[in-house]
Design goal:
about 500 residues; alpha+beta; D-Maltodextrin-Binding Protein, domain 2; Dipeptide-binding Protein, domain 3; 3 domains; six-stranded mixed sheet; globular
């Protein structure tokens, strides 16, 4: 891979020579450039953000532009008793192949993710469910293991998308991941892994036909390639705009930078706390104190991120503004010596080039670790490989990951999946944390839940099971004719988008 300063220079050169006025593509087609291609289009088994499947499948509950919960495939929902929620379904909805949407489809969709034999990587989001019962074609009841205040919220995003039982059974899960069918506004017509996904508007969509006929999601991992494609008029919207190119894009009269403050992921370093020397809290605290988060956010992220001391984000219910860990290399060395590592140690660390300037951030952190005597053997894995390694527990002892709670906007999604023992993305095992996390999932009263989340975040600050670094802003670039404002829940809602003629 070329050094990043060369990539930035190449992008600047592209901006300098690109024509000032490039005619956008016809309004019937929208091309979106992304940093990565999805590994699957099966919404129950995602290992990446749900950006694409959001537009192919629907959930029982939706969110409007103000992020409020609203009816989607369910017209209403009611708490029948502390352990039971009843959903009344929208009648007359069909899947894109004509199959009927009903309560049986809801039960099938949830049961397949909850099946322990399926090893669904996102099961933690809905594993409070004990059983799903069909009352009649338009009514379903969901029973929870304990009182679950978030059950309606859990029904608003992955893995709670509704899939067609008959179609999936006929082609099998492997084929369904490549040729999905949902009830959503767009149908996948072509999926070429690591290249592109093409979608066509669903003329029978229950909300009405979308305004844009065809949407192509192109995978362009190199940031300069995404920007070059935008300048050339080959794409009209770019995800994951590099911060070092944002000012250049903003200077073009035909382009716009779309910034969503705190709309991105919380970037953190995961730690395998069950392995030496990371099983010692003093070592974990030393590593945390070796990192100058504020300088990283200001200089490497160009202030398009905010240093943080917690895994939750400001939009999350239960968020607590924990103090940013101090940058104190001297204290870090003292802690290492007290833990029995006066000369430091050597350890593997992985930081994929997947998030905003994340490879460069990894290099800086490795240098900061070196300053306290810790030699980080830095690796920059390919995302497609890394995305499989992490939930399988095959990543390095120190590893970078981006996490968010955009599917619930609740601290539960930011904390439970990566801090509770045994979760697919957790390398933490601290019984005291487990107890609080479990209690938070069975407490109905919002005030009591907020207290529990504050305790969880305080304990995480004290025990340092992970190293929160910063929360990214979401950055996009678009042509001015594209109607798109960005959302804090990271959705790209194609149904709401337009392209000016």
């Amino acid at each position: 891979m070329r050094p990043r300063f060369l990539l930035a220079a190449a992008a600047s050169a592209l901006l300098a020579v690109a024509p000032a006025h490039v005619a956008p593509a016809h309004a019937a087609t929208l091309v979106i450039a992304r940093a990565a291609s999805p590994s699957t289009m099966d919404p129950g088994f995602l290992r990446e953000p749900a950006t694409l499947v959001d537009n192919v499948f629907d959930t029982l509950v939706g969110r409007d532009a103000n992020l409020k919960l609203v009816p989607d495939l369910a017209l209403s929902w009611t708490s029948v008793d502390p352990l039971t929620w009843e959903f009344k379904l929208r009648p007359g909805v069909t899947f894109q192949n004509g199959e009927t949407f009903d309560a049986n489809a809801v039960k099938f969709s949830l049961d397949r993710v909850l099946d322990p034999a399926a090893h669904a990587p996102t099961i933690s989001y809905i594993n409070t469910i004990a059983a799903v019962d069909v009352v009649d074609a338009d009514t379903v009841r969901i029973h929870t293991k304990a009182a679950d205040p978030l059950l309606p919220t859990r029904m608003s995003r992955y893995p709670a998308y509704i899939v067609p039982p008959a179609y999936l059974k006929s082609i099998g899960a492997e084929q369904f991941a490549r040729k999905p069918i949902g009830t959503g506004p767009y149908r996948v017509t072509e999926f070429v892994p690591d290249d592109h996904v093409t979608m066509q508007a669903n003329p029978g969509y229950w909300r009405g036909k979308p305004a844009i006929d065809t949407v192509v999601w192109r995978a362009l991992p190199e940031p300069t390639a995404r920007v070059a494609a935008l300048l050339a008029g080959e794409v009209q919207l770019v995800e994951a705009l590099p911060v070092d190119l944002a000012q250049n894009v903003a200077a073009d009269p035909d382009l716009q930078v779309v910034k969503v403050p705190h709309g991105g992921l919380v970037i953190y370093l995961g730690l395998k706390t069950g392995e030496q020397p990371l099983d010692d809290a003093r070592v974990r605290q030393a590593l945390s104190m070796a990192i100058d988060r504020k300088t990283i956010a200001a200089q490497i992220l160009k202030d398009y991120a905010d240093a943080t001391g917690t895994q939750a984000g400001p939009f999350d219910f239960g968020y607590k503004d924990e103090p940013i860990p101090p940058f104190d290399p001297a204290r870090a060395k003292t802690l290492l010596a007290a833990a029995g590592y006066p000369n430091g140690f050597t350890i593997r660390m992985q930081t994929p080039a997947h998030y905003i300037n994340s490879a460069q951030v990894g290099q800086v952190i490795a240098q900061e670790f070196a300053a306290i005597g810790v030699t980080a053997q830095l690796e920059t894995p390919e995302w497609s490989v890394y995305a499989q390694q992490v939930p399988a527990g095959k990543q390095a002892p120190i590893y970078m990951l981006g996490w968010g709670s955009t599917q619930t906007l609740d601290a539960d999604a930011a904390l439970y999946p990566i801090l509770h023992t045994g979760e697919p993305y957790s390398t933490v095992s601290l019984p005291a944390l487990d107890s609080l996390l479990t209690d938070s999932r069975s407490t109905i009263d919002p005030a009591a839940r907020a207290v529990l989340f504050a305790k969880i975040q305080d304990m995480s600050t004290e025990l340092t099971p992970t190293l929160p670094l910063y929360q990214e802003d979401s950055l996009y670039a678009k042509r001015k004719g594209v109607t798109f404002a960005g959302r804090a829940d990271a959705r790209i809602v194609l149904f709401d988008m337009r392209i000016a003629d």
